[in-house]
């Protein structure tokens, strides 16, 4: 029996109203096309938990990152993800503050620059090694030591540029990067190094080969997540995730960390478990709403319906679902006994689409 299961679902809420859709027509249309009966029953029978309410559309982290940070007792205003990501990528546990240097592609649009989703790059180990070697002279002159622990993620001591206000890459992906650039006392020094790296890689053989193969060149780096490793509580006995921040939190707390399986059926019984389900993230960020609907329906089949069945059968005692959109998260907790409270599914409370719509529009 599983004592408690937590499902964190980033980008599971359709976009709210904005400049391009002031009446929320697209959001309403997407909600009508969602067919999530199991998730709907879970949400309408659940007791509401923590919920994020703010009116700041320019927070530099993602809602599910702030949820994780809050549960771990970390700063939610400036989420220190890098030292935990570094731990997940094989770095040692130490007391030094670290920042993550992520390999990215920045696209030049007509009148602005756009950060592309780093997951689209699929950086190979051989490519990362060659690009790192190309920086030897530049880094040597600057006295900067980089730890190239993962092909797409490198790390450097935060003291190199001091604490900076920095944005999670996915938060800035697909947007004009001007308002998301790093800020702080030594931000200009950082931008100088970033520009020099971009010039070094501009015509590098790695990028020539990638462009010839129809792939995005790796033409820049993005600094983010600065902070120090801290003692954190266990979020669950077992954590299933491919996300390096969530994985690092698990390792720092001494929890078992496993790759995310295809569905809930692969989770082991016994103790508590947490799974971070990010299947809808890429489509949401890319505004590919057909793919987003497919991803959400896939999560229904592989996770939400089995979770409901596990509660009904007694395999799981309690379930927490954390849904996150672009700006907010909301937490829902449901037990086996709650499923019998049929009256919770009546009236306006029984409209799970309204719950998602409210979260999309929440301030």
UniProtKB/TrEMBL annotation:
This is Regulatory protein, RpfE type. It comes from Cupriavidus malaysiensis. The lineage of its organism: Bacteria, Pseudomonadati, Pseudomonadota, Betaproteobacteria, Burkholderiales. It comes from the Bacteria.
